[in-house]
Amino acid sequence: MTGAADTPADIDDILDLAGRLADAARPGILANYRSGIGHIAKGDESPVTEADRAAERAMRDIIEAERPGDGIFGEEFGVTNPDADTVWILDPIDGTKAFITGKPVFGILIGVVRNGRAIAGVTDGPATGDRWIGGAGRETLFNGKSVTTRKGVSIENAWLTATSPEMFVGSNKARFEALMGASRYTTFGSECQGYGQLACGWVDLVCEDTLAPYDYAALIPIIEGAGGVISDWSGNPLTFAAGEDDKKHSVIAAADAALHKAAVAILSA
């Protein structure tokens, strides 16, 4: 976990605004949850609803009004002011398939990146009422209380979770299956809330593939603030660049450094 010296001077303002963004997006999402709302397929065949778009518009409007010098990188409406030092990375409904089919594990993801470093993140679960908050130099909060990952678990005793086995393609499918075979138990269907489960100590590993920056930016401070480690499958830091919405990344998050090292050894073999 980073120390006070690594805490941005304006982190309180950033976290306050991130929370208000989630508050603004939540009502419209809930109004359409389990409503039979229609959807369309985007260019990559992933589904999107008007609720996704309305939630992102609501968050963008607030950012543009209160922090006009900041950039925004959203899943639905792309990038504005990409050269800004501070960029808000938004996924209004992470887990749209879960949202459409009435499953409560979808979430609002709000990440803040400054000069390439993720400094703040919020995962909000509208259907469950749960919220995880992470900030550089801060302990991760779950519903207002500090949480930590479960330390000292060997890989053979680890609980692993991922959104879906279908997200692993090509050679990465075999690598994921090797990690699954090395772990004790595997669950699917966690969506973004799997990372919250890890931060709370309920699972030990989250492994995913084909993620865009808006899928993981918010999760980095949440995992790190709870004492975990998050990277790509080679152990490299996750990166951010404007216009990367079509570039997909592998992600491995672990409860501690030793478990992360063991997982990376399998995934990068």
Provide a compact summary of the structure:
The protein is 32% helix and 26% strand. The chain is built from eight helices and 15 strands.
List the defining traits of the structure above.
5-stranded mixed beta sheet; Fructose-1,6-Bisphosphatase, Chain A, domain 1; alpha+beta; D-Maltodextrin-Binding Protein, domain 2; 8 helices; 269 residues; single chain; 8-stranded mixed beta sheet
Detailed description of the structure:
With 269 residues, the protein is of the alpha+beta class. It has two domains: 4-146, Fructose-1,6-Bisphosphatase, subunit A, domain 1 (Fructose-1,6-Bisphosphatase, Chain A, domain 1, 2-Layer Sandwich); 155-267, D-Maltodextrin-Binding Protein, domain 2. Helix content is 32%, strand content 26%. The chain is built from eight helices and 15 strands. The chain has helices at 11-32, 50-66, 96-100, 171-182, 193-199, 213-216, 219-225, 257-267; strands at 40-41, 47-48, 71-74, 78-80, 86-94, 107-114, 117-125, 130-135, 141-142, 145-146, 159-162, 185-188, 205-211, 229-231, 249-254. The protein has an eight-stranded mixed β-sheet with strand order 4-3-5-6-7-8-9-10, sandwiched between helices. A five-stranded mixed β-sheet has the order 12-11-13-15-14, with helices on both faces. A two-stranded antiparallel sheet has the order 1-2. Helix 1 (11-32) runs antiparallel to helix 2 (50-66). The two termini are 28 Å apart. The model has no long low-confidence stretch (mean pLDDT 92).
